[in-house]
Design a protein that fits this description.
A 7-stranded antiparallel sheet has the order 1-2-3-7-6-5-4, with helices on one face. The longest helix has about 100 residues, at about 120-220. A hairpin with a 2-residue loop joins β6 and β7 (about 100-110). Helices cover about 50% and strands about 25% of the residues. It contains 2 helices and 7 strands, in the order βββαββββα. The chain has a domain at about 10-145: Alpha-D-Glucose-1,6-Bisphosphate, Chain A, domain 4, CATH 3.30.530. The chain is an alpha+beta fold.
Length: about 220
């Protein structure tokens, strides 16, 4: 059954922040060919974060997991949503735009891929699982971004506090310098007075020395 780039009636939106986790169904191109897939769009995240989240989610499905050339897969997996039946899965990021990441998940049940028309109950249950995965991924991505930005904010705040401390130190230094300048200026003025006084004392002493020399010369 083909679905050529057309959304089916199955479509639901889960409110998340001011954006939506969107799940739909359509054919998606994989390296091994076109497959019916569950298409999920996750807001507020990055390709790197989603790639790690996909790997972690696929591990929870059990079986053997693998990743190659931007595609992720599992073999002989099993989840409660699909019952006892083993399945293979394929996942790939098909679009990354404006902070939203769109992923295609194709589930091979053996002979047919999971679809809303053939496996209605299983499709709904598995889509709900992927919705939970998407919301969790988006929240964790935002939480990580918040943590990183809060660290940057704290660094800015610490730097600002250091600047304020430096300013207070410089202002205190200026007051100390002003006090020292005032003290030095007063000492200079006193020095001028002392110099003038000393010069008068020198002149007086020169007269005394001169008189003594005169007396010395008068001795015969």
């Amino acid at each position: 059954m083909k679905f050529t780039f057309a959304f089916l009636a199955f479509f639901f939106v889960s409110s998340f922040f001011s954006q939506n986790v969107i799940i739909a169904e359509r054919n998606a191109a994989f390296s091994s060919g076109s497959k019916n897939a569950i298409i999920i769009t996750i807001p507020y995240t990055t390709v790197e974060f989603v790639e790690k989240a996909i790997k972690d989610e696929l591990k929870n499905w059990g079986g053997k997991s693998n990743s190659s050339k931007g595609e992720f897969s599992t073999y002989q997996s099993q989840t409660k949503e699909l019952g006892e039946k083993l399945f293979d899965s394929y996942a790939k990021i098909i679009e990354a735009k404006d902070g939203n990441i769109t992923i295609a998940f194709a589930i091979d049940l053996g002979g047919a891929y999971l679809s809303s028309s053939i496996h209605k109950e299983q499709f709904t249950a598995f889509s709900n699982r992927l919705k939970t995965f998407a919301i969790k991924t988006s929240k964790e991505s935002v939480s990580e971004e918040l943590k990183n930005q809060e660290k940057i904010l704290k660094d800015h705040q610490k730097f600002s506090e250091n600047l304020e401390k430096d300013k207070a130190t410089l202002e205190a230094n200026i007051l100390d310098y002003k006090k020292k300048i005032e003290e030095a200026s007063a000492k200079i003025e006193q020095n001028k007075v002392d110099q003038a006084k000393k010069k008068e004392e020198i002149k007086a002493q020169e007269i005394v020395v001169g008189d003594i020399n005169k007396k010395f010369g008068e001795i015969k």
